[in-house]
Design brief:
Structural class: mainly beta
Radius of gyration: 19 Å
Number of domains: 1
Largest sheet: 5 strands, mixed
Strand content: over 45%
Oligomer: single chain
Number of helices: 2
Helix content: under 10%
């Protein structure tokens, strides 16, 4: 890796984007198409992802928690719902996709259509505060059955975080994920400032390899990274961070090595952001909490980049309740629409309850004319 190149690239991106205070975008109200509220022995539903099946149906898989707590460590399994009309309506009852196989839970789903036609299902299997790693299963029959799980991390033992809707396949076929390591088995204390790595597979997930650690020269708290491949082949990593902004890192070798982190112009609390490519236009869509002035996870905002993440425009708020908390967004495109799923909490009313919303937004509404930019 040419480290000098990465340093210069980071400096140019960091300083070419204007520093900003919070900007309120246009307010757009997407259509609520599925709401999964808490119920008896089920105080939390959260962290999902979508896959379009070959028969045209869409499967949404989410983390269904059990018990009297919303903790990340309480029991959970993977549940699913189907839509046969492009996400406008959904089945009324859950199916169980994967039973809880962890001593604590399984959660944080990513679904990926592989280039060979199979569907890959990724999730965290959490056994303890020292044993939480991503697992992968494969379906060759359109999510009817799943293979035995494969460990995506075998070179280290510890507590790794892989967010939902976070695994991608590159143009060259490599499967790539970014993870945050908070604690290893030989460490006595938990680190909020996680070590950031990527893991990659060149054989459809059978074996996995670890990147170099991403350098954190500013020493900010770093968590919950995500990746996207840019048109020139560079991989962009976006990292949840303290300090009021998302952090960025770049890879020119498909995720083996990474540039030192640089501060983006994406004003944000310590909350994850999600990026996906809009299939109809080729632009990038960003979903995040446009609020770096405090730690509130509101509003939930969308923005579009027409220059591969260098600048962001068409800023649109889709959730604005100051009492709300909105995070862990999954993004899925149909021909004309975009589906978004996210975790919803009330800060003051029933804050111990967590529900999942799925909303539908026309892609053309994302491009409504407005002058808001980051």
């Amino acid at each position: 890796m040419n480290l000098f190149y990465f340093i210069i690239l980071g400096i140019l991106i960091s300083f070419s984007l204007p520093a900003r205070s919070q900007i309120s975008g246009n307010v757009t109200s997407p259509k609520l198409v599925l709401h999964l509220p808490p119920g008896d022995n089920n105080l939390r539903n959260s962290e999902g992802d979508f896959i379009t099946l070959k028969d045209g149906r869409i499967l949404f898989v989410y983390s269904h928690f059990s018990g009297s707590s919303v903790s990340d460590h309480t029991s959970a399994h993977l549940a699913g719902r189907f839509s046969d009309d492009g996400g406008k309506t959904w089945s009324k009852e859950d199916i169980t996709v994967i039973e809880n196989e962890g001593n604590m839970n399984i959660m944080s789903v990513s679904l990926l259509r592989l280039k060979n036609g199979n569907i890959a299902l990724f999730y965290l299997r959490k056994n303890s505060m020292e044993d939480c790693i991503p697992m992968m299963r494969i379906s060759t029959d359109e999510a009817i059955t799943w293979s035995n799980p494969i460990k995506c991390i075998t070179d280290k033992k510890g507590y790794f975080v892989l967010n939902n809707d976070r695994v991608i396949q590159l143009k060259n076929g490599r499967i790539l994920m970014a993870v945050a390591l908070h604690k290893t088995t030989n460490e006595t204390s938990w680190r909020d400032k996680a070590k950031i790595y990527s893991y990659y597979s060149d054989d459809n997930g059978l074996t996995w390899h670890c990147s170099e650690e991403v350098s954190n020269p500013l020493g900010v708290v770093t968590q919950e990274p995500g990746v996207i491949e840019l048109k020139n082949g560079t991989i962009l990593m976006i990292i949840r961070a303290s300090g009021g902004f998302q952090q960025l890192s770049f890879s020119k070798d498909k995720g083996k090595t990474w540039s030192p982190m640089v501060t983006s112009n994406i004003h944000s609390p310590l909350s994850p952001a999600s990026i996906a490519r809009i299939k109809s236009t080729g632009d990038l869509l960003l979903a995040w909490n446009n609020n770096g002035s405090n730690q509130s996870r509101t509003p939930l905002t969308l923005a579009v980049s027409k220059d591969e993440g260098q600048t962001w425009e068409l800023v649109t708020d889709i959730e604005t309740d100051p009492d709300g908390s909105y995070c862990y967004v999954a993004i899925h495109f149909t021909k004309n629409d975009v589906l978004l799923s996210y975790l919803v909490q009330s800060v003051t009313q029933n804050p111990t309850f967590c529900s999942t919303k799925v909303v539908l937004l026309r892609q053309k509404d994302i491009y409504k004319k407005n002058k808001n930019t980051l």
